[in-house]
Amino acid sequence: MLKxxxxxFLGISxxxxxDNGLDAYNSGDMIKARNIYEKLYKKVPNSDAIKFGxxxxxxxxxxxxxxxxxxxxVKNSNDxxxxxxxxxxLGELFIGENDFNSGLLMYKKxxxxxxxxxxxxxxxxxxxxxIQNQDQQNQDQQNQDQQNQDQQNQDEQNQDEQNQDEQNQDQQNQDQQNQDEQNQDQQNQDQQNQDQQNQDQQNQDQQNQDQQNQDQQNQDQQNQDQQNQDQQNQDEQNQDEQNQDxxxxxxxxxxxxxxxQKKEKINQKLKISKSKTRSLVKxx
Length: 284
Prior knowledge:
- By secondary structure, this protein is mostly helical.
- The protein is 88% helix and 0% strand.
- The protein has a domain at 12-144: Serine Threonine Protein Phosphatase 5, Tetratricopeptide repeat, CATH 1.25.40.
- Helix 1 runs antiparallel to helix 2 (30-43) and helix 5 runs antiparallel to helix 6 (100-113).
- The longest helix has 166 residues, at 118-283.
C-alpha cells in the first residue's frame, strides 16, 4: 500500500501551488502534478516537502531513479514525520523492485521515526513474514535443488558406474572373444600342424614302406639271383662232378680196358712162352 502524505512548509504563495500539485496528484494527473512540483523545486530547491512531492509523483510515474534521489534526500529531513513518510515510500519503491530486505529496512526506519505509523507497522510485519516465507521457500528450494543436484550427481555417478560396468563388461567380452578367437586360431593351427605332421608321418611311413618294399624286393631279387647263381653254380658243379664222374668212369674203364688188354698181352705172352717151353721140353 503506497502511503502518500505530503507536508508542505512553505509560504502562502507556495502553499497554493502545493495544493494544486496535491489536487492534480489525487486526481491521478501525474504529469500535471510533476510539472507543478518541478516548478516549485526550481524556486525552492531546499524544501523537503516539495522534494517529497516530486519524489512521490516520480515514483507513481515509475521513474525509479528520480524517486530514489528526491525521497532519499527527504529521509534526512529534520522533520521526523516527513522523513518517516519518505522511508515508507522508499520501502514501497524497493518492494516494487523485489528488493524485500531493503524495503523491510525502510519500513523499520519509518517506524523508528514515527512509532504511531500503523501502516508502516502492518507492512513491516507482512513483509517480514513474506521474507521469512520467501527465505524458507528459498531454503526449501535450495534444499530441493541440492537434493535434486545430489540425486542428479548420484544418478550420473550410477550412470557412470553403469556405463563403466558396461564398458568393462564389453571389454571383458571383447577380450574373451579375442581370447576365444586366439584359442580357436591356435587350436586350428595346432590341428593344422597335427594334420601336417600326421600327413608327413604318413608320407614318411609310406616312403619307408615303399623303401622297405623296394629293399625287400631288391633283397628278394638279390636272394633269387643268389639262389639262381647258387643253383647255377650247383648245376655247374654237379655238371662238373658228373663230367668228372664220367671222365673218371671213362678213365677207369680205359684203365680196366688197358689192364685187360695188358693182361691179355701177358696171357698171350704166357701162352707163347708156354708154347715155347713145351716145345723145348718135347724135344728133349
